Amino acid sequence: MSALLSADKLELAYSQIPVCREISLHVDRGEIVALIGANGAGKSTTLRAIAGVLAPRRGTILFCGHDVTAVPSHKRSRLGIALVPEGRHVFPFLTVRENLELGGFRNRRDGAKVRRMIDGIFDMFPRLAERASQNAGTLSGGEQQMLVLGRAMMSEPQLLCLDEPSLGLAPIVVQDIFRTIRSINSAGTSVLLVEQNARYALETASRGYVLQTGAIIASGTCDDLKQNPRVQEAYLGRSMAVPAL
What is the pLDDT along the chain (245 residues), one digit of tens a residue? Predict the structure, then answer.
């Protein structure tokens, strides 16, 4: 069976400044795959290329067996790739419900379906249901992260690309977010997770890639990566213990 997503030998740059080189990775259907590494390693850049926000200088990206290397981001979204960028980019002056409706734009002619999908998001995130008529800009950081996750799911993605979902959130909120990521995956959506918190990433994913200065330096199952001395020293410290997810 072919991979849902396959990136081969990507070379990525901003203007003429190279950022990533020879990036090759894949995500199979039903997987959570983690990209871990320090700030500036190229994790977010790789995710932007996969979502179509950044065009690679070299290399190819296949999705569902089709070459999407030159396909723009809005068309990749229709094909089933959803990106949740770092920074919780909500539409602050629109309500929670209106933000979710924008996420379901592809089904805008089927109002009943959009309402059912929003109800499903509210079941996933009861706090959003309580704030359905509240402007998104007035939500807490954790609630905004729930909203951008929900808005991405409104596009019915096959692959959900998450960029630093734990950034700036309280530990108890982080636990909730990662439980939700697992739930989304269990319901059938594959996940490509960029996360600086290596412990949470390796506890959540089944496989992972380690990026350092724009190149993949290690890959394998998360159990193998946890035992890798180089990964332990750089990202995990002495203990892999995390709160129960």
Answer: 569 999 999 999 998 899 999 999 999 999 999 999 988 899 999 999 999 999 999 999 999 999 999 999 999 999 999 999 988 889 999 999 999 999 998 888 888 999 999 999 999 999 999 999 999 999 999 999 999 999 999 999 999 999 999 998 999 999 999 999 999 999 999 999 999 888 889 999 999 999 999 999 999 999 999 999 888 887 876 544 445 55
Q: What is the β-pairing status of strands 190-194 and 32-36?
A: parallel
The residue ranges of DSSP E strands in the chain, in sequence order, are: 5-14, 17-27, 32-36, 58-63, 66-67, 81-84, 159-163, 190-194, 207-212, 215-221
Enter the pTM of the model: 0.91
Residues with Cβ < 8 Å from 91, sequence gap 6 or more? 98, 99, 102, 136
Kindly tell me the sign of the dihedral angle through the C-alpha atoms of 183, 184, 190, 191.
negative
Q: Which two tokens stand for residue 169?
A: 């959130």
Whole-angstrom distance, CA of residue 25 vs CA of residue 105? 30
Residues 119 and 139: their CA atoms lie apart, in Å, by 19
- Which of the listed CATH numbers 3.30.450.20, 3.40.50.300, 3.30.1490.20, 3.40.47.10 matches domain 5-88+159-236? 3.40.50.300
